[in-house]
Amino acid sequence: MKKKGYGFIKDNESNNQIFAHESETIETLKVNDKVSFFIKKDLKELNAAKVRVCI
């Protein structure tokens, strides 16, 4: 997660870019971390929820 408090996750299955806000992360993320998450859809875009690093 960038210092801005948000970033994008690339979904390997669909190749979509999914918006992720730090308020939806369960732990601290670094660039290129493999993560698991749920997808929430709002009016404009897909959003990641309950984002956590995969072990």
UniProtKB/TrEMBL annotation:
Looking up Gene3D superfamilies in the UniProt record yields: Nucleic acid-binding proteins (2.40.50.140)
**Family annotation (InterPro entries):** CSP_DNA-bd (IPR002059), NA-bd_OB-fold (IPR012340)
Per the record, the domain of life is: Bacteria
The record lists the membrane-crossing segments as none
Q: Which residues form the CSD domain?
A: 1-53
Name of the molecule in the record: Cold-shock protein
Which source organism does the UniProt entry give?
Pseudofulvibacter geojedonensis
